Amino acid sequence: MSLALTLHTVPTVPLEAEVLSPARLAGLSAPEAAKLTVVYGNQRADLGDFFKVGKGADGELHLTGDLARVKRVGMGMAEGRIVVHGSAGMHLGTGMTGGEIVVEGDAGDWVGSEMTGGRITVKGNAGHMVGSATRGSAVGVRGGEILIFGNVGNEAGSGMRRGLIAIGGDSGDFAGVNMLAGTIVVLGRLGWRTGAGMARGSIISMHPAELLPTFAYACTYSPLFLRLCLLHLGRLGLPVARSQVEGRYQRWCGDAVELNRGEVLLLDSAPGA
Amino acid sequence: MIVRGVLIEDTFAEAFTMRVARLIITGRTPRWAREAALKLTGFATSVIGCKCEAGIERELAERDTPDGRPGVSVLLLTMDKESLPQRLIERVGQTVLTCPTTACFDGLPQAPDRLPVGKALRAFGDGFQASKVVGERRYWRLPVMEGEFLVEETFGMQKGVGGGNFLILAEDADAALEAAEAAVATIADQPGVILPFPGGVVRSGSKVGSKRYKRMIATTNDAYSPTLRAVTESQLPDGVNSVLEIVLDGVDGPAIESAMRVGIDAACRPGVKAITAGNYGGKLGPHHFHLRRIMNGGPATA
Question: Within a domain: residue A127?
Fold first, then answer.
């Protein structure tokens, strides 16, 4: 599978295009791919009505244009690689189990919701509910990695059970709400009510934060797992500073209204500071 | 074959297939990583009495360790795959877990056979432990008085080779020791190999079984003991008054072979009469390291 799709008609209402996935496009010629069905508002349409489909060369799926209203790109994908040269719409990589999605621009809400494996990288900002459970579901991300280089909206990692969400900028409110396990790293600032209702898991920030009264201070130390985690994120291109890798972190335990086995780690000081 | 006046005997070292794990121990400083590694590899000279053989493979720079801290690479071997996990759990639990600032990582991540070391040690956390997955590898965080101990959930196991060896036959004890020290220093730079005995040197090479005691599985190698030259079937050439042995364990045959080559070469120095090797007639161990083939640079194993 090696295709390059360029958006020639920007949709004015959401275009649901879960066909934009390596498995759905595997073995199809460009004309065959252009005939795949998408849902435009409440109407059925052909993929070719919006995209010019051409051959790719590197075994990857390349999407070019402002896809901010193109939803469900890479939904449920299990392998392969998608590169979006532009922005992506809502539900990017929802439920994916493997493979990789790279978005050069911004992404909408629900990036990687309930994914179980693979990696999503967004070089710009993302909307609300990054890596979260869908409404009515108790469990969110069960594995894989989501990297957002910019800022994210509210409820990142809602109901997260496993995996890693890393945010290069700031997070909105309720990061890690109802979190069951897993790791959320925010290099910027946390919003309000971080970790509300979390049972287990780790939320890390490099800035002070006002936490809920149901979180209790434990100690200030240098968690070794965080070194591994931050070095890993640095290798993936996030701007992790040496002082953050070597630094000491305040450990806050919570949420006491739940199991109280979760933690929020806040950078306290760099060595020698 | 003569190397700088030292006879390389036409014989071979006979070695065995073992199971090996590689552990990466890191610490806040090289000292603390080494302290843990020394304890972990202590009393692990021979499976005959120690249940395992272990040694420091090499010291690691910060760039070569998973957590970016100074580290030490350790190899630990057992004769069978069933006992290796237990030895690791015992030794990591008693020597690395207890050592300030250290963490313990798997050094064979590609090995398909996985041993649940961290998975077993996590129970020390008494329910307060937590696991983390970073880049497809799972770790356990155990709360301890100092802070946290971090250990990888599983460690890789692969087939290794144990019992590579060569004997340094010298005019006197000083010459034997100097040659052995030179060999050990050279082998220290070789990857994939450990020397499990004290300082890398064995003075008490053994033979299988006993001539006198039925319960003994190994007894002194009387054929190479100078003090017994007159009362046993000695294998010692004239003029030899002291023998030291270098025993090598490794991740595979080529690693042993390469280390034997540089070690033997370093041991060929004044006062050394000959280099030979221990074997059991080729009937016990599947790995045969022929000394002359090794020193000629060709494939040594047969």
Answer: yes
Q: Domain containing A252: what range?
A: 106-269
Question: Which chain B residues are within 8 Å of A163, Cβ to Cβ?
Answer: 133
Question: What confidence score (pLDDT) does residue A174 get?
Answer: 98
A174-216 confidence digits (pLDDT tens): 999 999 999 999 999 999 999 999 999 999 999 999 999 999 9
- Examine the pLDDT at B269 and tell me if it is beyond 60: yes
Show the domains of chain B with their CATH numbers: 2-15+160-295 (3.30.70.520), 19-158 (3.30.70.520)
- Could you give the 3-state DSSP secondary structure of residue A195? coil
Is A152 inside a domain boundary? yes
Question: How many angstroms separate the Cα of B203 from the Cα of each of B70, B168, B186, B199, B289?
Answer: 33, 10, 19, 11, 21
Minimal CA separation from A230 to chain B, in Å: 9
Residue A42, pLDDT score = 95
Which residues contact residue A209 at a Cβ distance below 8 angstroms, ignoring those fewer than 6 apart? Answer: A189, A190, A194, A264, A266
Question: Which residue in B29, B99, B133 has the most chain A C-beta atoms within 10 A of its own C-beta, making it the best mutation to test that interface?
Answer: B133
- Identify the residue among A179, A224, A231, A236 best suited for mutation to test binding to B, counting B beta carbons within 10 A and taking the highest: A224
DSSP three-state, residue A61: strand
- A245 to B68: CB separation less than 8 angstroms, yes or no: yes
Looking at the structure of chain A, the number of domains it has is: 1
What residues in B contact A228, CB-CB < 8 Å?
66-67, 132, 134, 139, 150
Task: Judge whether A198 and A161 are in contact, CB under 8 Å.
Answer: no
pTM of the model: 0.93
Q: What is the DSSP letter of B69?
A: S
CB contact under 8 A, B67 and A231: yes
Look at residue A5 and tell me if it is in a domain.
no
| Residue A12: per-residue pLDDT | 95
Cβ contact (<8 Å) for B141 and A163?
Answer: no
CA B124 to CA B89: how far, in whole Å? 12
| Residue A168, in any domain of the structure | yes
Binned at pLDDT 50, 70 and 90, residue A271 comes out as low
Percent of all residues in chain A with a pLDDT value above 90, rounded to a whole number: 94
